[in-house]
TrEMBL record:
Residue numbers bearing the 4-aspartylphosphate modification: 55
Catalytic reaction(s) noted: ATP + protein L-histidine = ADP + protein N-phospho-L-histidine
Top enzyme class: transferase
Natural source organism: Pseudogemmatithrix spongiicola
GO molecular function: phosphorelay sensor kinase activity
Protein name: histidine kinase
PANTHER family cross-referenced by the UniProt entry: RESPONSE REGULATORY DOMAIN-CONTAINING PROTEIN, STRESS RESPONSE REGULATOR PROTEIN 1
Top-level taxonomic group: Bacteria
Length: 228
């Protein structure tokens, strides 16, 4: 059996609600039941669900309006929407799909009809979950790659001026610089410090896709300040 789903079910027909709820529960899914579309939409808006089953014609808010609102919701892109309707004209069914529904069932429905749609929904939700997981892993990989490129760039751009700064400072500290050359040594320290500051400034302004090949296929963020 697939992973248990949280399903929102809205239908103003008591017998239809009981039939749908019974089938969904038999497959191990958690069902929240409502008798109008407005309540179903409020529940989704508060806590989005992977599957929503809606009657078309309901008081306060019909099923198609709920579909449209869910599709406009930040978390509604992958929600599986199933509309149940007594209408069967081609134009009516086209309206259902235009509202964002994934599928529909024409009344009267049987338990086998519901079970078949449920299997389709389970597979679609499983695929969408796997895709989101892969996208998240890719995002993490890109982030870590970016951290590596920035680290290599800082090492490459800061090592030389930092080494010059520390070496000059140590020579001055040890009294190895003649008095008349101390102003020049201090100027060198200042110059190298400014070089480091400039690199850090460019780091704040860097574009994430602005990288160059460094060595052996390694890439680093370009902090050189050179124009392309």
């Amino acid at each position: 059996m697939s992973t248990a789903l949280r399903i929102l079910l809205a239908d103003d027909d008591l017998l239809m609600r009981e039939l749908l709820q019974t089938v969904f529960a038999a497959y191990g899914h958690e069902v929240e039941v409502f008798d109008d579309g407005a309540e179903a939409w409020a529940a989704f808006n508060e806590a989005p669900a992977p599957m929503v089953v809606l009657d078309w014609e309901m008081p306060r808010m019909d099923g198609l309006e709920v579909c449209r609102r869910i599709r406009d919701h930040d978390a509604g892109e992958d929600t599986y929407l199933l509309v149940i309707t007594a209408r069967s004209k081609a134009a009516d069914l086209e309206d259902v799909l235009k509202a964002g529904a994934d599928d529909y069932l024409s009344k009267p429905v049987t338990p086998s009809d519901i079970a078949a749609r449920l299997r389709i929904a389970e597979k679609r939700i499983e695929v969408a979950t796997a895709r989101r997981r892969a996208e998240e892993e890719l995002r993490k990989a890109r982030y870590l790659a970016g951290v590596g490129e920035i680290s290599l760039a800082l090492q490459h751009e800061i090592n030389n001026p930092l080494a010059a700064l520390l070496t000059t400072a140590e020579i001055v500290k040890q009294g190895m610089v003649p008095a008349e050359e101390i102003p020049a040594a201090l100027a060198t320290i200042e110059t190298q410090a400014k070089r480091i500051v400039e690199v850090l400034k460019r780091l704040r302004e860097v574009q994430t896709d602005k990288s160059v090949e460094y060595a052996h296929g390694q890439r680093m963020v370009d902090l050189s300040g050179r124009k392309p």
